Every structure is written in structure tokens, then in C-alpha cells.
Amino acid sequence: MIVVMSPNATQEDLVNVVKKLESMNLRTHLSKGDERTIVGVIGDKKIIANLEMEMMAGVEKTVRITEKYKLVSRDFHPQDTVIDVDGVKIGGNEIVVMAGPCAVEGLEQLREAAQAVKKAGAKILRGGAYKPRTSPYDFQGLGVEGLKLLRQVADEFDMKVVTEIVDREDIEVMENYADILQVGARNMQNFQMLKALGKSKKPVMLKRGLSATISEWLNAAEYIMAGGNENVMFCERGIRTYETFTRNTLDLSAVAAIKELSHLPIVVDPSHGTGRRPMVAPMSRAAIAAGADALIIEVHPHPEKALSDGNQSLKPEDFQKLMENLGEIAKAVGKTI
Amino acid sequence: MIVVMSPNATQEDLVNVVKKLESMNLRTHLSKGDERTIVGVIGDKKIIANLEMEMMAGVEKTVRITEKYKLVSRDFHPQDTVIDVDGVKIGGNEIVVMAGPCAVEGLEQLREAAQAVKKAGAKILRGGAYKPRTSPYDFQGLGVEGLKLLRQVADEFDMKVVTEIVDREDIEVMENYADILQVGARNMQNFQMLKALGKSKKPVMLKRGLSATISEWLNAAEYIMAGGNENVMFCERGIRTYETFTRNTLDLSAVAAIKELSHLPIVVDPSHGTGRRPMVAPMSRAAIAAGADALIIEVHPHPEKALSDGNQSLKPEDFQKLMENLGEIAKAVGKTI
Amino acid sequence: MIVVMSPNATQEDLVNVVKKLESMNLRTHLSKGDERTIVGVIGDKKIIANLEMEMMAGVEKTVRITEKYKLVSRDFHPQDTVIDVDGVKIGGNEIVVMAGPCAVEGLEQLREAAQAVKKAGAKILRGGAYKPRTSPYDFQGLGVEGLKLLRQVADEFDMKVVTEIVDREDIEVMENYADILQVGARNMQNFQMLKALGKSKKPVMLKRGLSATISEWLNAAEYIMAGGNENVMFCERGIRTYETFTRNTLDLSAVAAIKELSHLPIVVDPSHGTGRRPMVAPMSRAAIAAGADALIIEVHPHPEKALSDGNQSLKPEDFQKLMENLGEIAKAVGKTI
Amino acid sequence: MIVVMSPNATQEDLVNVVKKLESMNLRTHLSKGDERTIVGVIGDKKIIANLEMEMMAGVEKTVRITEKYKLVSRDFHPQDTVIDVDGVKIGGNEIVVMAGPCAVEGLEQLREAAQAVKKAGAKILRGGAYKPRTSPYDFQGLGVEGLKLLRQVADEFDMKVVTEIVDREDIEVMENYADILQVGARNMQNFQMLKALGKSKKPVMLKRGLSATISEWLNAAEYIMAGGNENVMFCERGIRTYETFTRNTLDLSAVAAIKELSHLPIVVDPSHGTGRRPMVAPMSRAAIAAGADALIIEVHPHPEKALSDGNQSLKPEDFQKLMENLGEIAKAVGKTI
């Protein structure tokens, strides 16, 4: 940490700052410029992490040099992490595609969707059993019944299941039916749930919060890893900006950022990320070109009848066509699909 | 709802759209313009709320006319709601001030803070027992021990307690110690917790999410009211924007927006809203001038020693001075403090 | 400036960084932490301002300590600047109100508006002769004809004129008719125009760009002052955020920020800042409570017939009522109106 | 346009609204719902474009159905426009790469850069002669001298020149030296300059404003086309969001949006779009995969000595490597490079 003294700070102010730091067993280095003195602070990172110096007389501001997260950082774990989801590997040389309807609506719908996406090459079945909805009057999902359908249909087609968890009390029951527990954007900083997921044996897919910085996102993953669960993957799903043409602004530079800062895999969700069906294919291609490890795509056998998010769901035939094209992009970045 | 057909829509597309709507017992009105036909949709609001028409052939887009929330809306409840917090009334003619430290750190700190803020005119003691922190390595609060201290000290000074709830499992224990349960920005769309708070007898203060729209915020309150708890107040605490000089951008026009759209009271938090001590006083004045019903302000007896948010906490003497000034602003808008 | 070396930087990298800095006659101070070395850079501010160190091997990032602006800064000019607009003083103890229609539409409209706002207490007449409009097919203003009407009507009612300049070629003609030249949000970083305004004798009102940071705004004012024109006032008019209920998000904390960082006056525009007529009054009150020196408000004698921005314009009778109320708020912050 | 009446509107309000619309030769269609009446407005688009109805008694809000731009719209011009830049075609099957330094610093630097980028496959030389800089004390470019160097060096290597115009007075001189006139983000809504560029014979590259919506961007291009210049290309260069890890947030979904809404070509600038050298390559790949027609990339022979933006400039050897890789991505989307 660096403490920047104000131009009007007195010698006494400076002495007090140094004294306070030394009383906490931290070392200091002074740089006296023409207008300001700058104090470099060196020592135990945990003590520095909790320092609050800006209230002291003569202090203009402080600048943190190091991030607080550690386990998720590539600095501490240079090689890529590959997560084994019951045989399906995420983070390696093969791009994995998760697909299925936004919400589980019934056996027939789910089976039809699963059959189509499996045939096109998807390995993981997605579908919401618990749906976080803006309005209390919107369809809230089938709950445990939906989980059971997901498991049944996934097994039928030899697929894995990813589905969203919205309450830490549900972890146990979800572990019985799902292979990946998805933390939604609205819960990215539901810290109690993150801590509880740190004790789970299941891989966690952590979606980026609606307006989460890269740093906050990495720290959220740190909560899970600090609890002991090392199988965390990120999922970029668009951030909130002033633009209204798209539902969210899909931030593909986040893929490059995560690859630079962390060893964990990253998934991209072009369906929620854009909210517009015609954009799903180009953004899927772009995500792979940017370095994503996996995609999660909404596919509904009859999107015009969907109970939620119909206008961002692909039809099976569009998904099939997209998958055929993605192989070439994957090849261009040295991967397979 | 209005369905806008695309310029290329065929007569058959239009017939299909009308058929689908009529099959759901909705009525339609067609307006044929030079380029586009527009279909007005009339009927049961709940059915309309769940309509997904954008996947149908020939449909360009749909425009929703009405919001989904109802109980929180001023349309359905024109007069202002006044919430009685065990004798302290929020939403009426008297502006209520909640004050205290960001986090409860110990008996002495809390007592010193409470004494100071009570003397200056605050009626409600604030302080976090459970702290949602970006990093797992930051101070997470004293937990139940903190709740007990809050109750003890508030009773000593004849004050009420407002404190944050971070897990729906804590509702019962918190009801024993707190008078207002605060939902933090990160949990504004933790819908399971909102539903559970709908069953609580305690007033709830719902902070605006970091990037929540006014509409999402009202819908989040609707979750609580739909559960049966009518004592909900909003709290504007700054939104996330591109600006970095302030910690958040305090959106005081949200005060006017809430007053226009809802009958529920609104509190303003200038401490988190700006993150800078010198801004707390001007923004407190502005909040009252804009029509806020209450303020929640961080005051720490020794901000330079605070375990969190020291640089946005007022010292007791600054808080005292601010309170003296606020009376004049209150008077200018026809209120007292 | 501080140069933060990466954890993997070699001793040679560090030596090269120091050599480069010393070759530019800058001095360095090293702080060696457990993981990183930090290099403090001291010396001529102009040289430091143009330093680009992040491309050098071993450099993780750089942190700038000081802002580049100087003439606008309160550090260099502690006392408030009061701008004398031909007898009307902005930045002093009296709050000045500028009012009038969005666009000059004709003599009758302007005269009716001027009469009403003058009677209610406004001292400066606003009105656009050149209108920057999103679409080329929107009404673009009356041009020089509008300027002449503004001057004529202002003189009739003993008022001053503020109006927007959209092209640096217009400076000379505008100086003949206007008392304050307004730089609109879309031109805040039209640097050629700012430089030219630095040579003008007329006061300039610099509106904040749609997504300008406080720092960029101050630097834009620095362009004008660096040219020799010391009469610059800021105007907060709302920033662009994700919120759509209001046209922009009026950032009243910017008032406090400008007062802290600069000696120049600040005006608030609640009409464009909210885009909604019912919000103009509460936001005007809040602006004064936050410390604004002046307000600029849209008033149209017949807003339902306005050629632009009718839905944010006050009617004369509403403006009259607002002005009566503002006096009490002004008094509460020790000012008059 | 649709006029939504408020639930409290009287029959008289409705009659007045209809009368006003009919007095302007517009036709109306009423849809009476349970709570609200909705008025569909049909007729001359130009008249509707300028309607301001929200001030009328009983009107809750209005909803515009159609955008105002026309010439840039794919609706009116379904096939892709290919711009011929003196033999280099942008918008067709071949992806064009523009490359060179951020600012022209001198003959040697420019020649070294041009040689490198030409060899790697770039066809257009970029470089700023006029630099819009946040601070007046930053390097402002070499001006006409820089233009001459650009022309000279481009001719030497058989390249075309793209460079930024910052003042409409410079159009004539720039036309003598440049092949594409670039409008920077800060001038996207400098409408006087856009109008003047409508009269130019040179192709224009219109960068997206820092916080411009897709709709505003299309309307800005409409200004140029409405003046008679049909050779307009868009350039996505990142938008301003809350994220600070990257300099801007590169919005690649804008590529898909422009392709859907317009027939004009789109260029992507991954250098300014991210501000970080290691992200330029993955974002270049992603841009092509998303459907971009061209890229503009900063390359500096010695980025550690650059006078601006060194930390986002590629070294020649990195650019060479990138170009080799881009061919495979282009092939995967059916194009060449």
C-alpha cells in the first residue's frame, strides 16, 4: 500500500502516520517529492489489507498495490486448471458446450431439447429448476420436480447437468441431481451461499454479477476456494451498461482478463449476454476466438411457447447449424469442440 | 402490451399473432401504419405479463405498457405510508436520522457512538453485525454477539436498532434484537430472502442494488409486500457508474422517483452513497431537500481506528454540527427533524 | 508517479527502469516489499505527465499521484472565483437562476417566457439558437436569427443571455449577442472549440459530458483557462447510466466534488438532468442544498407546443411557485436568491 | 408513435389528444384496456418525429415505434455496402487491417512502423497528426507536418492513410493527404463537423462515442449520409462502463447489431477498446469471428518510447504473429485477410 500525504500535511502528520504503521509491525519507505510525500508500506499482507489510513490528518489518499485474492490467482498457480465434471473436462483443449432451455417446463419439452442439443454435440444439459425472476408474479420454476426431470433426461441422453442454485439451503438436494451448481448473477455476492458452496464437492459455475468488476468476481471465487472447493469456473453473461439495444453488454475482454489473472476456466453465455436470438451465433464464435473454454446456450424446442426468455432461445435447427460452424473457429485457435 | 409487426410481416404472420392472442382470451386492436402494423393487446394483466411474442414470425418487438408491481404502487395506494418502528415514525412529517458505526466492533466503541449520535438527535442506532465484504479475508462482523451489543446499547440510550441481514436463516434471531431489518445492496435480488422477509413482523429497509433500476427495486419490494409484510422502506445508497472519484453515484432523483411511483418511505445513505467524508454533509442536506423521509449516516467515535469504511465515517463533532444545520433544510421543505 | 514492478521482474528490469527515469532527470525511491518492488518517481511534473512506463519489461502498472490540471484547481487558487456577467455575479452569496425555453422558436414565445421568468426572479435568459440534435431531421434551431431575438428580448426585460455554441467559427457572432457562451455536453471535449474559447472575453459555461469523469471535466476547463479566459463555470446536467426512468442521472455529488477540487462556480441543470417535469422542483431544491451557485431551468409558456424537450419544461406558474420555495432553501445554506 | 394515457385521464383529456393529432393531419387508433387507453398514431413520419405529447393533460408517456434514421438503415438498403478506398475494399469478403502508431512522431518512427505493418499484411496506415488529449499539457500531435509524413510514408509502401480529423476547418487540408477521415469518439456528435463531412468526397470512419447508444451512432452516420457522402464506415472502439481493468469495454455485440440494422461496414479497434497490449490479439480474433469487416490496430516500433498510448501498442513482431493467426479465423467465417 502507498499512503499519499496531502501538500498541506505537516511534519507531525507524517510522523503520526509512520508511527501508526510501525505500531502495527509494518515497515515504511518515504519518498519526498516537490509537493507531496509518499509513504510506501511493507509487511504482512493481511494486516495491510485491513488498514484504514484515510482518516488520519494529512493523508490525501491511499493506493492499494496488491489484490486480496490469492487462491484464484495465476500468480500462485501458473498452469491452467482443468475441471473434471464426471468425465467431461472443462478448461482443457476441448471446448465444451452446455445447452438446453432457460427453464425446465416439463418432461416433454426437456426431452425434446436434450435430444436436439445432444445430437448437435452439447455434452451438458442446462435448465433452470429455480428461477430468480424480477417480479414475484413471474414463473418461478418447478423446484425439486425440475431437478428430477433434469437428472432423468440427462441420464437418458448420457449428459451432465448444470442448473442454478438460489438458496444455500438447497445445496444438499441439488448435489443429488446436478453435476455443476450455477451461481447466478444476482447471487454473485451472496457471500453466505458462496461460503457454503466452498464445502460442496460439486463444481461451481460462478456467473459475473450484473455490474461486478473483474476484481470483485475473482474475490467472489476466492470465497468458494477458501472454503476448500477448488472446482470453480467463471461465466461471463454480460454486464449492465447504458446500452438498451441488447439486454446486457457481453464483455468478451473479460475472457482475456480472466485468462491473464486466473488459472480457472471461463464459460461464456451469449444468450443472456445479448438477449437477442440473431446475436447468439456471432457472439458464440467470438467467445471461442477470444479464448473461452465453454459456452452455455439457451435452446428451446418451441421458443415461441417458452415460459421465459423465448426471444433469446435458439431453435434446435439453428443450434445444430451453429455447432457445425464452431468447430472451425475452435480449430483456428488450436482447440477442438 | 403492444406488438409491433415488422415492415416485412405477411398477412399470415399477422393472423397468427392475433390468433395466438385470442387463444389466450386476450383482445386485440390493430393500427395499420404506412410501414408497420401495430397490435394493441388488452385483457388479464397476469396473462399479459407472461406473454413472449417476440419469437413469432413477423414480430419486430413488443412494448410493455404497465409495470408488474402493484402493492408498492402509488396508483393502488395514493396516500403515503408511515411506518411505526416501535414508536419512531418513518414517512411522516418528521425526518428520522439513523446513525452509528459501519460495523459493531465492541461495547465501548458502540456505546461511545450511540451516546454521541443520540445527543445530536438520531433516534435509530445503526451498526453491522454481519458484514458482507468483497474479500473473504476482510473483517466479517461479530455476528450474534454484535446483535446483542446493538440491542443493549440501543436500550441504554432509548434508541431503535437497524442492522443488516445477510442470510434468510438469520431472520428469527435478528427479530429478537433488531427493530428494522436492512437488506443490503448485494442482496436486493436475493429473492428467497425477500420472500422470507415477507413473513416477518419487522419493518424492512431495502437498499437499492448496485445497478438496480427503479423498476427492479420496486419489484423487489413487491416480493416482500406480496408475502404480507407491509412495512417496507427504500434506501438509496448510490449506484455504480463509470465515475471513480466517488465510491458510488448517489442518485437523489431516485427520491423523487420513489415518491412519484410508490407510497412507501425512502431513506438516503450519503455515507455509502459517496464514500467520502466531506461529501456527507452536503448530500444529507440535498437528500432532505429532495424529499427523503430519513437519513442513515455512518458515525464512528474514532474513524481512524475503524475496522471498515473509516474514510466515509463522520466524527461525532461533525455529526453534531450537521444535525444542527439539517433542521433548517427540513423547515424549508415543511418538515421537522 | 509510482511504478509497480511485477513479482517476476528481474534485477535487470529494475535497473533499466531506474536508468530510464534518471535519463529524464527524474529521481527515484525504491521500496522493496516481500513480493514487489515499488519505484517512487520525483521531479518535473510535465515530464512525469508524459511518462509511459508500462511497456518496459518487468513493469506491472503505474499509478499517477497528481492530476494534470492546475489553473482550475483549488490547490493553486484557494478562494472561490466569482464571475461577473455584466453585473450579475455567479459564485458568490447570491444564487442566480437562468431560465427560458429549450429552443428559441419565435419572438412571441421568447417574450412570453422572458416576462414570466423575469417576474419570478430569474436574471439570465436561456434559449437555444443552435440546437445539437441526435437526428439530422430534428429542428436544428433558428441560428443567428435566434441570437438576435435572445438579445432583443433580454434587453427588453433587463436580463443577460446564456446560449449554446456548437461551432468554434460562431464565437465572434455569438459574442455580439450572448453574455455567457454555453458549451454543451456533446462538445465538452471538442478541444479545438475549447482552445478558441480560451481567447474569448465572454464567460463560458461548460456542461459536463454525457459520461465525463470529474477529472476529465476539470481538464476540459483547464483548456479554456490555459488560453487566458478565467471566467469558466461548470454545469452539471446529468450523466449517462443504466437507469432509463430518468433521461440522465443528475449527479449532485459532483457539486460537492467541484467545490472541493476547484475554485470555479457550478451551475445545475435539473431539466436535462432528469428529463421529467415533476422532478425539476425537488432537484432544484436539492442542488441548492448541495451547494450549487446557480440553476438553469427550462420554462416554456406552452410546453405542449414546444418544438423540443416539452416534457421537461416547467410552465410559468410552476416556475413561479418553485422560485418562491427556493428562497427558503437558500437561506438554510446561508445564501440568498 | 403510441400515446399511453394515464389511468386517471378523463374523457376530455382523450378528446384533446385526438384533436391535437388530427389537427396535424395524423390519424389515430384507440385501444381501451381495463386501466388505460392507448392511442396509436399514424401518418407522416417527419411530423411524428417532432411530436411532443407528454405535456398534454392525461398523457402518461409516449413510445416511439420507428427510428429516425433512414439512409443508413438496412431496411432501405438490404445489400451490404462495400467502400472502395482508392482500390482497397472495405465491407466485402476480404478483411482489411489498418495499422500504425497512435501518433505520428517523426519520419523514422513512421517509416519503421509502416514497413513492419505492410510486411505483415496491413493495407492502410494509421497514425494521428491531430491528437485530442484529455489535458492541454499532453502532446497534441504534429499537425499538417504529421499529415505530410503519413502521405509520404504511405506512398513509399503503397498503403492508404486513415487519420483523425478534429476540426471541420481541417477537412480541405486533410483531403489532400488522407484516404479515410476518422471521426473520433469525442466528436461523434460534433454535428457541425458531421454535416461538413457529408460534403466531402473522402470515406469517413465514424468511431462510436464513449457512451453512445447504437441508435445515436446510426443517427450520427445519418448526418453524414444526409449530406451526400455515402462512404461511411463505423468503428467500435469500446464504451465507457464501470469496469476499470480495461480502458474501455469493447462491445463486440455492436458488430452484430450494426450488421443487423445497417448496410454499412464496421471496423473494430481492439487497441483503444481494451487499452492493454495482451488483449489486442484475442480481441482481434473475436472481432473477426463476430463479423467485423476490418481492424485498426496500434503498432509502434518502440512502444516503450511512444509519446502516447504505449501500453496498448503492439510491437512489430507481435503484430506479425497476430496477422498470421487471423487468416485462420477469417477462413472459419468464410472470409480472407
Report the sheet with the most strands of chain A, covering strand number, pairing sense and barrel closure. Answer: 8 strands, parallel, barrel
Measured between the Cα atoms of the first and last residue of chain A, the distance is: 44 Å
- Spatial sequence of strands, sheet with the most strands of chain A: 7-8-9-10-11-12-13-14
Q: Largest inter-chain interface?
A: C-D, 50 and 51 residues
What is Rg of chain A? Answer: 23 Å
Low-confidence parts of chain A, pLDDT < 50 over ≥5 residues? none
Helix tally of chain A equals 11
**Percent of residues in β-strands of chain A:** 15-25%
What is the molecular shape of chain A?
A: elongated
State the total count of DSSP E strands of chain A: 14
Oligomeric status: homotetramer
- Write down the overall mean pLDDT of chain A: 93
Instruction: Determine the structural class of chain A based on helices, strands and strand pairing.
Output: alpha/beta
Task: Report what the structure shows.
Four copies of one chain form a homotetramer. Chain A is built from eleven helices and 14 strands. Chain A is an alpha/beta fold and 337 residues long. In chain A, strand 12 (232-236), helix 8 and strand 13 form a beta-alpha-beta unit. The mean pLDDT of chain A is 93. An eight-stranded parallel barrel of chain A has the order 7-8-9-10-11-12-13-14, surrounded by six helices. Chains in contact: A-B, A-C, A-D, B-C, B-D, C-D. The interface between A and B is large, with 50 and 50 residues.
